[in-house]
Every structure is written in C-alpha cells, then in structure tokens.
Specification:
It is a single chain. The chain is 38% helix and 20% strand. It has five domains: 9-80 and 89-105 and 139-144 and 169-271, Bira Bifunctional Protein, Domain 2 (BirA Bifunctional Protein, domain 2); 288-487, no CATH class; 510-590, Elongation Factor Tu (Ef-tu), domain 3 (Beta Barrel); 596-740, Threonyl-trna Synthetase, Chain A, domain 2 (Threonyl-tRNA Synthetase, Chain A, domain 2); 762-840, no CATH class. It is built from 25 helices and 24 strands. The radius of gyration is 33 Å and the shape is globular. The termini are far apart. By secondary structure, it is an alpha+beta fold. The structure holds zinc ion (2 copies). One zinc ion binds at residues 546, 602, 606, 685, 704, 706, 708.
C-alpha cells in the first residue's frame, strides 16, 4: 500500500527554510564560520540569511541581489587554473585535509537506478542503496568527478555561460554515523580549497543558509557565493520526514552531499570571458580554426556579464532582453546578435558533442524513446547549427578532440571512440533521411505552425524547427523548443511493480534452486495459503522472473500450474489449494526436462549477449529478454538492423563458447564489491534491489547479475541457433534463438529442407544454389514461349555432423532461397512449382 506523502519535498524545503535559521548554531556550521571571523547578516533584497566578513554588508552574494558577475571584471582568485586543474587540485586537497579517497566517475547512464536514465548529480551515484545504508560506499569519505547530463535547459546552452547539457559535478561525499557527524569540519575542508588552493580572499566569500529536500529526506545546506556566482552547495542530509509526531527522525546514516561544478569554478578561477571558453579551450581553438568564427574581445567583455539575463526560464520576452542588453552595450541589436549567435552555435556544438561522447561511450544510443530521445534531440540541434552556418564540421572528429583533451581525467573515453564515431555517422544518415522526407511531410501542413504542432512533428517524424525554416515553412521557433521536448523525457517510464496478493507478513522464501539447478525434488513446510496459491518455507520451483518462465510440477499429488514471486515470497498455484493446510510437510517435484530446457535457453541468452557485444561493439546492452523451454529472445541496443553476416558472426561466436566448454560461475557478492570488480556492465537486466548481487560469470566473456537457473558449463548448451533478428524500434534489435534440443531440431528441419530441395533439383547441397539459378532461368524462358530444358542430376544426401557442416548446408539453402526469392524453410515449394510448370510444358528431363 502506498501512502501519500504528508508534504512534498518542495513543501518540506519551504517549511524548514523558516525553521532552521531560527537556530543557526544547531543546523549550520557556525562554529567554523565564527572562527574565521564571519558574521551573520540578512539580505535586504531577498531576506535570506548569509555569512560574510563585512558586518555592514546589506545584500547576499546572489547575482540577482548584487547585480552582476563582478568576478568577470576583477579576478577574485589569485591562482588561475585550467579546467582540468580543478579536479586535480580538488582531489589532492581533500586527500590532504580529510583523507578523502578520489574515486572514478560512475557511468553517466544510470544502470543501477530504475527511476533515472542519466546521472544528474554526483549523489545519484549513491542513491538509493548507499544512502539508505543497504550497500557500503565504494570509499568513505570520497571525492568523485562525476559527469552528469541534464536536458532541461537546452535552449540556454551556449549563451548564458552557466548552462550545459553535460557537465562535471565534483562531489565531496561522506556517509557517517550520527555521533561522528561534524558539519564544521566538512565546511572547513571545503572552504580551505577556495582559500588555500584557489587563493580566494575570505572577504570575497558569502555563505548562504539554505535547505535541501529530496525523497522525503532533508537537511540544512550552505551555498558558497563569490563575485555573483554560486560556486558550490554543501548539503547535510540528516533527517527523514515523517509528518506526524515526531515530525521527522534522524537518518541512521547522515550524508554529506557537496557538489561543485568543474566548469563554473574553472571559469571563476581563470576569468575566461565565458565558461565555455575555459571548459572546451583546446576544442574551441580547433572549432574556430575550422569555421573561421572569431570573437570580438570587446563585445564579449561587455556582453557576457549580462548574458545571464537571456535565461529563457526567467524571461517572458527574450527579444526585449536582447534589446535591453544591446542598449546597455551601445550596439545595434542585429549587430550584437551577429557577433554572439555564431558563438552560441559553436559553444552548443562543443557541449552537445561532448555529452554524446560520454553517453555513447557508456552505452546509450540516440533513439525516439527513453533516454535516447534527448540524445537525438541534442544531436539534431548541433547538426542544425552546423547546417545553418554551412560549417561542414565532422562530429566524429570533434568527439576525438574532446576525448584527447580530457584524457588525463577520463582516459576511458579513448576505449570506445570508434564505436561512438560509428553511431554518430549512422545518426547523421538517419537525420539526412528525415530531411529528404521533409518536403512530403510539410505538404500536408496548412497555415502557420504553432509550437504544439512543432513538438508533434519532432516527436513523430524527427523534424526540427530549423529544418522547417530551411524548407521555407513559416514558423516562429520558441527559443526553448528543446527544453520543452526534453522535459517530457527526463524520467524513466519504468512502472512500479504491482502485487496481486498481500504477502507483507510472510518471510521471504528460501530458494533451493540456486545450489543445484538439476535438483528436482525437495520437502518444504506450508506457511500460508492465499486463494489458489500455496506458500512454503523453501522451494525448488523457479517463479517467472527476469524473463525466465516458471517451473511446473507437483506438490504432493497436486499439480503446480504456475509459480510467481512477490516481494521475495514464492507462490505455487495449484488446482485444489484446500488439500493443503498450514504446518503440513509437503513433497515437491518439478518437471526436470522443462527446467533443463529453460536453463539451456537462459544461459544461451547470456552467451548470445556476450557474442553480440564482441561482434557489434560495447554499446550493446540487453534491453529485455524472454526464455521459454522452446526458444528465447533477447533485445539488444544497436543502431541499425543486423545483416545476415552479422547474425552469422554472432551465432558462430556463441558456438565457439560452447565448444570451449567454459565453466559457468555462479556466486553472490556484496553489491559494492561486485560493482568494483566487474563494473556496471553487471546490470544487463536492469537495476537490482538489495545489498547483494548474484553474479553469473562466463570467463570474461559475459558477466551479469542474474537470478535465473543456469547451466554449470557452456557445453551443456550443445548448440545455439539464431533463428531471426528484427529491428523492433529505433536503437533496439530483437534476436530470436534456440538452444540444445530445440536448436538441433531446428537444424534438422533445415537439413531436411535442404535435402528435399536437392532431391527435387537432383544435386548435392553444394550445387543447390547454382541449379536453383538455372531452374529459374529456364522457367522464365519457357514461360515467355522460348525453348529450354532443365536437366536433373544426381541427388546426394547431406549428412552434416559438426556445427560447421550444418552451417554449410544452411548457407547453401539460404543462397538457393535468395535466388528463388523465398524463405529458406519454404524453398522446396517454389522449386516444386517451377518443376511442375516445366513438366507440363515438356521442358523437364
Ligand atoms: Zn539576497
Ligand atoms: Zn540472466
């Protein structure tokens, strides 16, 4: 049962924004602030409480209260660091002052979360299982340079200097017992970075008292401001809201969540005219050389301190803002736009290609749905800029520039560059196809296109506003078009599991099938009966889950027709539940043959997953799967339909793994340990709750977290046949396969068909294709009234033994089917028809 929260997170924040400042010494690190000579003030403009060394100061440090980004006019940091220096100096400083361990970034694709597509903040790495204490943190305390993606402000990217789709949030994180929690120390670690490393004069810094709330957790937070910008925010996540009496409780694990924008602090430190210039320094240099775009230093210096006003979230009339700024910098609006907009395009291309580089490297693909939707949106926005200015930039090359520039901080970006470039090239083709179709699409549109229609056109056909404009359609493009479409696709659409039956008072069932997948009988005790379902203390019945179909069998003499699981409780559906009562000892037996067929198909799905990744590239992830006794299917992420050659290569690779007879290792690890050892590639089947993972490891070929029943050795799969592949949606390919007996039966059918065809044609399987061709030619001639004769040769039966021999026969049949333009399993029918036609005309020998 879900309980409606008493207050939303927003309301909690609002409420405690009034409460915490009433007792600042209790909630904020005032001991540290006072020791540094800071005094408390209240902003005369926004009423917020702040700390500063100047006791006469009247306003807080926010740009809307101080009026401008003063650090752009007067450098405030004594030491000027490059973009990459920020993480280097930060991690070193925190190691020194508080023994924080620097860890590697998490993938930007949030595989361990079921509620998010992409990581949006460094704390997302640790939500929910580290923060709620179920899983140990990878280190404690720690710092992390986390690459994040956010698509809510796409329209502001490239213009304001503070908006990005992809950025690095440097995190300072701790997970502490309440008695060890010391906010004064954590604030000292952070502040000393600015004072001692960046060389910021403490009198330039302002601390703001604030409150943070999320997922019903909340706590005080402190924002650090200097020169008009927020440098970072330190959150003390300490309480869980209950809404009753007491109103909240202490979290068992108190968390420090400090996020510092690497882009922003680099900008602040090195006084670039706009943050993009310091973030993408070397890449922009190359982009400017390629495009000939120049910056007018004078205009930039005057314009960029005011550019924050062009934030589309905060203005209703963007043209009025442009006019106001133009007046202030004494320029004509058009001249100002002509100087600034090409730069916006260049900065946006730099931002979007970098975001794509990270997302694609980490295995995401642009598509029409889910997380891929926004990747396609930024790809097309960047592409449109490139087209609009006729720059002819090669995005494949730009991602390489980015990877090279970031090598010291993110060496892993080198690993999948080829793959990323391939995906970008395919994405270009797809967009170009859309552009070719645009004339046809817009023909059906009458009159002026409103924003709603533009969004619909983008969603249904991938048509961007810029491409409509280029095609001569009268459109008024809202500047925040991309923000409008992006916001609709931020959250994962995954649905929460709904339980049919209430099992909340029952202990989780002990699962006996993990120890030995071939064990087929056991004795258990009835703990509860709900409707037709019998619940035991332990069982060997596998419930339908993870795409694997359930076991059937018997409990005593009663037929088990279905097995399901709810919240860890396994339920056996029987025809007469009244034959059981609580406390009974029950003998159970499963249908062993079915179990083994299921295990063969499940392990084969893992083998095919590994094979697909090794043949197609590291972007291949499992999208979904289904295993039945007769066949299995596996959906993989891939950017185009598979060719026959690719199918064959995957199948061959899979059968090599069978031949190698590799042990299938099955073991349980603590989640943090498993992640550290094998990486997030474990989460092929999606996010998994709990503190432990069951790992299924086939050498280094395929390693997945999985709860299914698996073979002990790959050789038990015997044979794997890929029977079909279909592109089921953009970026997703469905593979159908058979394993073991089912695969052998399938191969036998193909061999029988090949022999049937050979017999009809009078040949061996090797001649099948050539003779099919001949038959077809003769048939065409005779049909046109010309003379011709088909002569049957000697039939030789194919008797393939090994996989390679079977494959040779299958390929011969496939070729013949291709020649006759039919499906391989129906080839004999076409041959029979042609032969009958020739016979009737006396053209058969
Ligand atoms: Zn203020
Ligand atoms: Zn599995």
């Amino acid at each position: 049962m879900s309980i409606m929260p008493v207050l939303t997170d927003k309301e909690i924040k609002k409420k405690y924004t009034k409460i915490f400042p009433q007792d600042p010494d209790r909630y904020y690190p005032t001991k540290y602030l006072k020791s540094m000579g800071f005094v408390r003030g209240q902003c005369s403009k926004c009423a917020r409480y702040f700390w500063n060394q100047d006791k006469n100061r009247k306003v807080c440090g926010d740009v809307s209260c101080v009026g401008k980004f003063s650090f752009l006019e007067k450098p405030l940091a004594k030491n000027h660091f490059s973009y990459l220096d920020i993480w280097k100096t930060f991690s070193k400083h925190f190691k020194k002052v508080g023994n924080y361990t620097p860890i590697k970034r998490y993938p930007v694709v949030a595989r361990w979360r079921s509620d998010l597509h992409f990581v949006e903040a460094s704390i997302d790495d640790f939500i929910p299982y580290v923060v709620n204490g179920v899983v140990k943190p990878p280190a404690n305390p720690l710092t992390v340079p986390q690459f994040c993606l956010r698509f809510n402000d796409i329209g502001n990217v490239g213009i304001t200097g503070s908006h990005y789709t992809g950025f690095v949030m440097i995190g300072q994180h701790r997970f502490e017992k309440p008695q060890d929690y010391d906010t004064n120390a954590y604030m000292k670690h952070l502040s000393s970075y600015f004072f001692d490393v960046l060389g910021l004069d403490p009198k330039e810094l302002t601390y703001h008292e604030d409150v943070w709330a999320g997922s019903q957790n909340f706590g005080p937070s402190v924002e650090l401001f200097a020169g008009g910008i927020e440098l970072c925010n330190q959150v003390y996540m300490q309480y869980h809201y209950l809404g009753g009496n007491p109103e909240f409780e202490d979290l068992k694990l108190k968390v420090v969540d400090m996020g510092l924008g690497q882009e922003r602090v680099a900008w602040f430190s090195n006084n670039a005219p706009i943050s993009y210039e310091s973030t993408y320094a070397s890449v922009l240099e190359k982009l400017k050389r390629e495009t000939g775009v120049k910056m007018d230093a004078n205009i930039m210096k005057k314009f960029y301190p005011l550019a924050g006003r062009l934030n589309l979230d905060e203005t209703d009339d963007i043209n009025k803002e442009w006019a106001g700024i133009a007046e202030e910098v004494s320029m004509n609006v058009d001249a100002l736009k002509n100087a600034i907009l090409p730069l916006q395009a260049l900065y946006s291309i730099a931002d979007h290609t970098r975001s794509l580089l990270f997302a694609l490297s980490d295995g995401a693909l642009p598509s029409n749905s889910g997380g891929g939707y926004n990747l396609r949106a930024i790809y097309r926005r960047a592409y449109d800029f490139n087209r609009k200015y006729k720059w002819n930039l090669d995005f494949g090359q730009i991602v390489k520039w980015h990877a090279d520039a970031l090598k010291s901080q993110y060496p892993e970006l080198q690993d999948h560059l080829d793959d990323v470039q391939k995906v970008l090239a395919v994405e270009a083709e797809k967009y170009e196809k859309t552009l070719e179709n645009i004339a046809r699409i817009i023909k059906s549109i009458k009159g002026k296109i409103k924003t709603e229609k533009m969004i619909e056109l983008y969603d249904s056909h991938g048509v961007t506003p810029q491409s409509l404009k280029d095609a001569g359609v009268d459109v008024n493009v809202p500047d925040d078009f991309y923000s409008l479409i992006a916001e609709r696709h931020r959250k994962s659409d995954e649905k929460e599991e709904r339980y049919l039956l209430n099992v909340s008072d029952i202990k989780k069932t002990e699962r006996l099938y993990y120890a030995d997948y071939k064990k087929d009988s056991f004795t258990g005790k009835v703990v509860k009966i709900i409707d037709d379902y019998v619940i035991l203390d332990k069982t060997i019945f596998y419930p339908t889950s993870g795409g694997q179909l359930h076991d059937i069998g018997y409990l005593n003499d009663e037929h088990v027709i279905d097995t399901i699981v709810q919240d860890g409780v396994i339920l056996h559906k029987v025809e007469h539940a009244n034959k059981f009562k609580v406390g009974d000892a029950v003998k159970g037996k499963i249908d062993k043959e079915r179990r083994i067929k299921l295990a063969k198909h499940h392990t084969s799905v893992h083998i095919i997953n590994g094979a697909a990744r090794s043949v197609l590239g590291a972007h291949v992830w499992q999208g979904g799967s289904e295993k039945t006794p007769q066949k299995a299917r596996l959906d993989i992420s891939h950017y185009e339909a598979l060719s026959n050659e690719q199918m064959r290569a995957i199948e061959k690779k899979a059968n090599e793994i069978i031949k190698k007879a590799i042990r299938v290792e099955k073991f349980v690890l603590q989640k943090s340990e498993a992640e550290k050892k094998y990486g997030f590639i474990l989460y092929q089947g999606g996010a998994i709750p709990g503190s432990e993972l069951r790992v299924i490891k086939i050498a280094d070929f395929d390693i997945e977290a999985c709860g299914g029943t698996h073979l002990d050795n790959t050789k038990e799969s015997e044979l794997i046949k890929l029977t079909k592949s279909t592109k089921i949606q953009d970026g997703l390919v469905r593979l159908e396969l058979k394993a073991g007996e089912a695969a052998k039966k399938y191969t036998q059918e193909l061999t029988d068909e090949a022999n049937h065809v050979s017999k009809l044609l009078g040949c061996s399987y090797k001649e099948m294709s050539a003779l099919s061709d001949e038959l077809f030619l003769v048939w065409k001639r005779v049909r046109k009234g010309k003379s011709g004769k088909y002569t049957r040769g000697k039939y030789v039966e194919a008797k393939p033994k090994t996989y390679e021999q079977m494959l040779a026969v299958e390929e011969a049949l496939e070729d013949a089917a291709d020649v006759l333009r039919t499906q391989k399993i129906k080839t004999h029918r076409t041959v029979e028809r042609f032969l009958a036609d020739l016979e009737a005309k006396g053209a058969l020998k």
